[in-house]
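Q: What would this chain look like folded?
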Amino acid sequence: MNLILRYMTLADVSQVAAIDRLAFDLPWSERSYAYEVTESTYSYMVVLEAATESSTQGWRRWLLPVNGRSSGRRVVGYGGLWNIMSEAHISTIAVHPNYQGRGWGEILLAGMVRRSLALNAGYVALEVRVSNVRAQNLYRKYEFETTSVKPKYYRNNNEDAYDMRLALTAGARARFNDRYAALQVRHGFVDAYSDHEPPRRHPVEPEY
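A: My prediction, written as structure tokens:
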């Protein structure tokens, strides 16, 4: 699949919110994502977009190209990154259930870490459920370490969260760059996010 890592736009919000509802018991609202994209000055929201194909049956297939298939693009995963002072904080990350198990969550995570490097953050922080071993293993692969436990962090079931952090030292940066290069070779994705500035919405000047 042709993958593009890029900034989330207002047009993506409905797709992102739909994935969020599938992935989490406490999803964000569309309004929250719209704020992150259009108003927040510290948010760096990202999506992973993939080329998709769908088969069409019956008479409708005659409206399509000769192979009887329609192609398009859709958001298959997303992430949220906040940058405040020296801290880069991963606020959310998810891949649509239909596309999990392909390593695409790793692309989103790595893209946000690389964006943190470009922002000259001192470290990257995130929270993860203590029961989510799969996610913890991915974070540890990228050298995140558990620094503390946040009791009853998740409101839906009072589950604890691990506070995990990646110190962006010179050595960590060098190792990450090698890992990121290998990830791009493996998946062949286009990165239009990590070393680009976000398309902030500019306020409209009033007319007098």
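Residues 147 and 164 are 6 Å apart (CA to CA).
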